[in-house]
Structures are given as C-alpha cells and as structure tokens.
Design brief:
Distance between the termini: 48 Å
Strand order of the largest sheet: 2-1-3
Structural class: alpha+beta
Radius of gyration: 20 Å
Shape: globular
Number of domains: 1
C-alpha cells in the first residue's frame, strides 16, 4: 500500500512534466499525501521516505506479473535450430 501511494505521487509528478530526477518520495501517513524529493529529506514523525529504486523495483515486479516473458516453444517433431 505504501509503495502504491509512492508510485501515484511519482507518476503525478512525471505527468506534470517533471524533468529532474528525484531520489524518492516522502509520504505523510496521516493525510495520504506525498511529495517528490531531490535530496535526502528531514522527516516529520508522521512521514516516511520511499527511495526511487524501491518504487521502480515494485513497478518492475508488478509489470512482470502482468506480462510474463514470452517463451519459445518448438514442435516436438522438429530438431532444434542450429
């Protein structure tokens, strides 16, 4: 749930035309809001920092579950290609 919220904040930033590369997202647990950050933040007690590599890792994992890699299958009667 935390990663999904961080992804929404990041994608909203990117859709608005954000060109700088952020290092992560800071989420406020009480208000369900967040912001993109470009340097290590000082957090308030109700905030959590989600690094960009963790967000992208979750994105890749979700994408791989939706679209499993294609597999090449050979007919049983044909020899494998050289």
């Amino acid at each position: 749930m935390l990663l999904a919220a961080a992804r929404r904040v990041l994608f909203a930033y990117l859709e608005e035309g954000g060109y700088d590369d952020p290092i992560g997202v800071v989420l406020n647990a009480n208000q369900r809001q967040g912001r993109v950050v470009f340097e290590l933040p000082v957090l308030l007690p109700e905030e959590q920092f989600v690094p960009l590599d963790l967000i992208r890792g979750a994105e890749r994992l979700a994408r791989s579950r939706r679209n499993p890699p294609a597999r090449v299958r050979l007919a049983r009667n044909q020899p494998p290609p050289l």
